Amino acid sequence: MAATLIAVGSAAVLSGCGGSADAADNGKLKVATTVAPITSIVANIGGDRVEVTGIVPEGTNSHTFEPKPSAAKLLSRVDVVYINGLKLEDPTRELAEENLSDGAEVVELGTKCIDEKDWIYDFSFPKSEGKPNPHLWTDPTYARCYAKIARDDLSRRDPENAAYYKANYEKFSTMVDELDAAMRTSFATIPRRELLTYHDAYAYFGKTYDWKIIGAIQVSDFEDPTPKEVAALIGQVRSSGVPAIFGSEVFPSPVLKQIGKESGARYVDVLRDDDLPGTPGDREHSWVGLMHFDYVTMTEALGGDATSLKAFQQRDIAPDQASYPQ
To answer: pLDDT tens for residues 188-208?
Structure first.
């Protein structure tokens, strides 16, 4: 279903903003993005001065997603493509490089935000496979870096609006500071900050906020783990004494449900790492809405007090007019 929707979504975008006539109409920078959290961050910096179109449909496995050939037409008309990098969206990057017009570029936000020596290899992303864990955006300190690079790049391409992008970034950075403080206050109330999830999306977050990542169900080939691996995870959960393990609302996991049942931990199946809460246009449909939802959920399920996180005011810095394929 998702693969079909991207073709339809791309066609709608192209018919609505395609061609030189459109460029002459509004003069806005044309930006393509990949996963929804990146789309949201860029939209918060670019605001109404740019046109932002996401390529990867929400609810899709971004690690295995391959864009339809119809996306090539969109990519041929944009000024810049912002991707995560760290080998997350190689098919999209390759299609973009084949179709970008003169002067347009692919900018890898994640790759620019971290030195290679700090890449994390783990359960789903073993070093032997050559691909590091790419999920920097679940750590707000890295998301701030994404926003900074977007600010600088948009300002270089559109210097007349540089002050606008700078102001949006400063507001975004302030919001990240508020979120970071609320997270640390709430996390300090959790008896054991140990995490077993459906997908290995919280490695950098864990390092920054002092969480122990017990494991992840999706192994490197994104198939279910072996019975031996499942047994080992059941043993880890039992020995750790964590009260809850976490699954995905988008990708249900019978294996995690089994681990919860056999270990005695509660199975909480509502987390998400790149599928934003709600639908486009909803207040919570944003990168910060995603972070707020996930970390309130984790805190409460693990016996902590999420009062500080709940008091945090999630908001868009600029009106989010981006196109999010569904």
So the answer is: 999 999 998 888 899 999 999
Kindly state the tokens that stand for 7. 């073709």
The alpha carbon torsion through 141, 142, 144, 146 (nearest 10 deg) reads 180
Q: How many helices (H) and strands (E) does the chain have?
A: 13, 8
Please give the Cα distance from 164 to 29 (Å, whole number). 14
User: Are the C-beta atoms of residues 165 and 147 closer than 8 Å to each other?
Assistant: no
Among candidate residues 114, 71, 101, 102, the one with its CA nearest the CA of residue 89: 71
CA distance 243 to 176: 29
Residue 3 has pLDDT above 70, yes or no: no
Q: How many residues are present in the chain?
A: 326
Q: C-alpha distances in angstroms, 313 versus 17, 79, 301, 308?
A: 33, 33, 21, 10
* pTM of the full structure: 0.88
Selecting from 3.40.50.720, 3.40.50.1980, 3.10.350.10, 3.40.50.300, what CATH number does the domain 2-109+117-180 have? Answer: 3.40.50.1980
Average pLDDT on 205-214 reads 96
Q: What is the 3-state secondary structure (H, E, C) of 36-83?
A: HHHHHHHHHHHHHHEEEEECCCCCCCCCCCCCCCCHHHHHCCCCEEEE
Q: How far apart are CA 232 and CA 53, in angstroms?
A: 42
Give yes or no for a contact between 30 and 77, defined as CB atoms under 8 angstroms apart. Answer: yes
Protein fold of 184-311:
Rossmann fold (3.40.50)
